[in-house]
Amino acid sequence: MDQQQCIIDTHHITTHTMGRDLGRGKGEKRLCYMRKDGSCPVVFHHAPGQWSFFLADIFTTLVELRWRVMLLIFCLSYILSWLFFSLLYFLIAYVHKDLEDHDTAPCVENVRSFTSAFLYSMSTQTTIGYGFRVMTENCMVAIVVVTIQALMSCFINTVVIGITVAKMACASKRAQTVGFSSCAVVNARDGALCLVWRIADFRRNHILEGTARAQLVRPTKHPSGRISVTYQDLDIQSRHLILATPASIVHKLEPGSPLYSLGPDSLTEENFDLVVSFTYTGDSTGILHQTRTSYTPADIRWGQRFQDMVQVGRRHYKVDYALFHQTTWVQTPMVSAQEGDRGRPPTTESIVQSQQPLVRSSRKFRRSLADVSEEVVQEAWL
């Protein structure tokens, strides 16, 4: 039987059995360029500038820190500021001899030890009213220190609130509610092989518009040990999406596509990552977000399609997310798109397109003959 006529005709839910180590040596694992959650397994060594770049952009550095580290830094900023200003109040009281002579007019009422100075510093930075311990007009230095602490308190509160809000509204958190299908499929659509994957928004306040993008990342290891990475963009049909319901993103396997010559057998031997992303603006916050993931050759299911998960009701569209990752077998040629085009008989459209250059050349030839005949008539007339 001819290989180009080999098709599958089973209509049932299937379980994909292709592993990540398929087509490789036993015990040899393939390192993905990008993980499923969109992170890249990259470790930097001897980065230029070291900590200077991170300190120059301290706001972004604090936003990217983990919650436990950020909370520890915020707690230390408050406690250290209280200790610093309590030390200043204690020194002022010591110089003014408020610790020894209780009959003199003190700089700060009832600050006779370091503990009382710490309590006064904490109440100054966290409240605006005083009770048992209060500042007097006897020491100008103490008044200046209180003013500086009040300004420092406003600055610390602004930074803490700003970073907390920015971290809570981080784009990576919103990206977790916009998901891609766990696999991609290859099937025939409108007489051509297409690579398809799904994307959906799991929130009720849906994204109104976004832009999808796909890129084929192919790392190559040379015999000398050098590693080079090439990037190729894939053409996507309907790149701009309205994600009210789950959408299918389609890439047509046609001439010019980097996957044009790959078939179901050669696909397992390839080494590439299909990095897909969806960039959108959140309708609730107005912040730009991006969700991304990657598909390896082991994640591409040949001859399958996604199950229908959208149904039309009387008043609503019903979406069953239990079928979001489910696929079924469909009739699909088990050859590459290039081999399928070679064995496909020419269509009327292709014949017309191939004859267009001949028609143009014949028209040019007729025009040239007309010009020559006109020149001959003019010469005869002269």
Note down, in words, how this protein is organized.
The chain has helices at residues 51-56, 58-64, 67-95, 114-126, 140-168, 171-175, 264-267, 337-342, 348-381, and strands at 178-180, 184-189, 192-201, 207-221, 227-233, 240-243, 247-252, 273-281, 288-295, 300-302, 304-306, 310-312, 317-319, 327-329. The chain is an alpha+beta fold. Strands 1, 2, 3, 7 and 10 form a five-stranded mixed β-sheet that branches. Strands 4, 5, 6, 8 and 9 form a five-stranded antiparallel β-sheet that branches. Strands 11-14 form a two-stranded antiparallel sheet. β2 and β3 form a beta hairpin. α3 (67-95) runs antiparallel to α5 (140-168). The longest helix is centred in the last third of the chain and has 34 residues, at 348-381. It is elongated, with a radius of gyration of 36 Å. The N and C termini lie far apart (74 Å). Mean pLDDT is 76; it is low at 1-28, 346-359 and 372-382.
Short recap of the structure:
It contains nine helices and 14 strands. The protein is an alpha+beta fold and 382 residues long.
Low-confidence stretches: 1-28, 346-359, 372-382
Which percent bin holds the helix content?
Answer: 25-40%
CATH architecture of the largest domain: Sandwich
Molecular shape: elongated
Order of helices and strands: HHHHHHEEEEEEEHEEEEEEEHH
CATH topology of the largest domain: Immunoglobulin-like
**Euclidean distance between termini CA atoms:** 74 Å
Summed up, the domain count is 2
Number of helices: 9
State the name of the first-level CATH class of the largest domain.
Mainly Beta
- Assembly form of the protein: single chain
Estimated radius of gyration: 36 Å
- What is the β-strand count? 14
Question: What fraction of residues sit in β-strands?
Answer: 15-25%
Which structural category fits the helices and strands? alpha+beta
CATH superfamily of the largest domain, called what?
A: G protein-activated inward rectifier potassium channel 1
Nearest-integer average pLDDT: 76
Main β-sheet description: 5 strands, mixed
Subcellular location: Membrane
GO molecular function: inward rectifier potassium channel activity
Site (Role in the control of polyamine-mediated channel gating and in the blocking by intracellular magnesium): 157
Domain Potassium channel inwardly rectifying transmembrane: 34-169
